Amino acid sequence: MAKKAVLLLSGGLDSATALAIAQSQGFEVYALSFAYGQRHKRELMAAQHIAAEYGAKEHRVFTIDLAGFGGSALTDNALNVPKDRLDEDLARGIPITYVPARNTIFLSFALAWAEVLQAYDIFIGVNALDYSGYPDCRAEFIKAFETMANLATAHGVENKQRITIHTPLIDLTKAEIIKKGLSLGVDYGLTTSCYDPDPQGRACGHCDSCQLRLKGFRENGMVDPAEYAA
């Protein structure tokens, strides 16, 4: 019988690759996405398509209001998404697109569902190399959350089985992630990574996420199959 795993599915390149990896390792995937007050819903549509295309056992979308706190260009339309930043800028500081405590909150929901499912594995597609400087994408954060998870749940306290947070992309470049996903048959045309798509859902090609994604495909000698605005 396949082991159950809860996977955080954003609709982006990284989470789609993490889903393919989890399935390749024999896990039955329960996908979890969030309508958290983000400025666009294109990523949720992509998540639904990916979950259906790759046979997630179940896909749930939870609605929470992180926009109520503000503080991020992804949840507050009054803040501009940075565009066309230089490589040295991408590597310095925490950008305004960081959503306060987002991965902590998302992983907490995943942990709750995993406990109900009696699943002891949670997958998240965080990456500590080609990323935009978010503090909740680092290995130190994941290790700390995993420790907390095993202290905060009935299964963890009763020592039935240890809860593991899987981060299969944590030490990969974007190019390496794409290469891995392609080897597993991921259709990246289904994914979206843009922070600021146009009303038709086309990627801007200029935000940090688009720049990192495009760089990854270039380094693989490929054209990104995502649709970009002219």
Description:
This protein has 230 residues and is an alpha/beta fold. It has a single domain (3-219), classed as HUPs (Rossmann fold), CATH 3.40.50. 37% of the residues lie in helices and 12% in strands. It starts with a strand and ends in an 11-residue tail after the last helix. The mean pLDDT is 93.
Could you outline the blueprint of secondary structure elements for this entry?
Layout: E1 3-8, H1 13-24, E2 27-35, H2 42-53, E3 58-63, H3 87-90, H4 102-117, E4 121-123, H5 139-152, H6 154-157, E5 164-166, H7 174-183, H8 208-219
Parallel strand pairs: 1-2, 1-4, 2-3, 4-5
Estimate the strand proportion. Answer: 5-15%
Question: Termini, distance in Å?
Answer: 48 Å
- The CATH topology is what? Rossmann fold
Number of helices: 8
Based on the structure given, which CATH architecture is correct? 3-Layer(aba) Sandwich
Helix content: 25-40%
Query: Nearest-angstrom radius of gyration?
Result: 17 Å
CATH-level-4 superfamily name: HUPs
Shape: globular
According to DSSP, the number of beta strands is 5
Order of strands side by side in the largest beta sheet?
A: 3-2-1-4-5
Brief sketch in words of this structure:
This protein has 230 residues and is of the alpha/beta class. The chain is built from eight helices and five strands, in the order βαβαβααβααβαα.
